């Protein structure tokens, strides 16, 4: 946000967690207050979970016209994006397993009916490999060498770092562009791996993002900047902050009329019993939706 010709505050929303902001803050190099919109509830749930639940199918269909029923799929990462992808693919009849480093997310996957595996142990059997971790080199060249002919490899997680695409730019491999955003990477023995969007984000490169979701995330960003701009001097230091819970709830309430949804209102007695303000916020900051 620019005021009087100077950068006074920033809100950030991007693919993957904004770890760079926290790194700048830890190093004492963050020159303005920053609002981490990416980790707000409305962004995490509606963009990461519900939007990706639809865009994974859209992106794969547009690029490959694959039929999902009976396909062996591994989803790397069971955060909100991974949960959305797994839910959609399972509903279409795919046989889905997941990889995870976090025991809590892994246990959630087990309880949702997904087998938790190590990628190295299943890579040869997979028809589709999807990364959703926010990390780098999740799918390595050694794993790509072992992948079966015709496997579809794509990224739903973060930038173009999750699949080691650079290692595929080698003399022994041939790249064949078969249509926009679809490359066949051909090994010397004739094996073809179908790489989508050159490892970039599938949902941003190969499918549409519904305006409803864009409205939610844009509203969240706008409110974050308004909060930073209107805050009394000294409330926000040169650090990274999460969106106040009240604002998260307000963003959600603004979008409820799209569904003709009506909130139940607490009585004075109920609000007192729960120790809440009748107008919110309704959950503590530590609450996990």
UniProtKB/TrEMBL annotation:
Q: According to its UniProt record, which cofactors does this protein need? A: NAD(+)
User: What Pfam families does this protein map onto?
Assistant: AdoHcyase, AdoHcyase_NAD
Coiled coil located at which positions? none
Q: Name one GO cellular component term.
A: cytosol
- InterPro entries cross-referenced by the UniProt entry: Adenosylhomocyst_ase-like_sf, Adenosylhomocysteinase-like, Ado_hCys_hydrolase_NAD-bd, NAD(P)-bd_dom_sf, S-Ado-L-homoCys_hydrolase_CS
Ranges for domain S-adenosyl-L-homocysteine hydrolase NAD binding: 48-209
User: This chain belongs to which protein, by name?
Assistant: Adenosylhomocysteinase-like 1
Q: Which organism is it from?
A: Salmo trutta (Brown trout)
Q: What is the lineage of its organism?
A: Eukaryota, Metazoa, Chordata, Craniata, Vertebrata
């Amino acid at each position: 946000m620019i005021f009087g010709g100077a950068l006074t505050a920033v809100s950030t929303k991007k693919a993957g967690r904004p770890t760079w902001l926290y790194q700048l803050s830890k190093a004492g190099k963050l020159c303005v207050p920053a609002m981490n919109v990416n980790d707000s509830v409305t962004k995490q749930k509606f963009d990461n979970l519900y939007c990706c639940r639809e865009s994974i199918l859209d992106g794969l269909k547009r690029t490959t016209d694959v039929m999902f029923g009976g396909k062996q799929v591994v989803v790397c990462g069971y955060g909100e994006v991974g949960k959305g992808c797994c839910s959609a693919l399972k509903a279409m009849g795919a046989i889905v397993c997941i990889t995870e480093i976090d025991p809590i997310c892994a246990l959630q996957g087990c309880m949702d009916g997904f087998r938790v595996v190590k990628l190295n142990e299943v890579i040869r059997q997979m028809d589709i490999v999807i990364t959703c971790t926010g990390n780098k080199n999740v799918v390595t060249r050694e794993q790509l060498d072992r992948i079966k002919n015709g496997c579809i490899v794509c990224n739903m997680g973060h930038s173009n770092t999750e699949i080691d695409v650079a290692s595929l730019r080698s003399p022994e491999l041939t790249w064949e562009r078969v249509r926009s955003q679809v490359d066949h990477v051909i090994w010397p023995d004739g094996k073809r791996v179908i790489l989508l969007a050159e490892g970039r984000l599938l949902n941003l490169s190969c499918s549409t993002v519904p305006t409803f979701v864009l409205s939610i995330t844009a509203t969240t960003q706008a409110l974050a900047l308004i909060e930073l701009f209107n805050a009394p001097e000294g409330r926000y230091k040169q650090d990274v902050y999460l969106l106040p819970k009240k604002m998260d709830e307000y963003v959600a309430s603004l979008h409820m009329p799209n569904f003709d949804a009506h909130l139940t209102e607490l009585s004075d007695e109920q609000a007192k019993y729960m120790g809440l303000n009748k107008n919110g916020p309704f959950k503590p900051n530590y609450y996990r939706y």
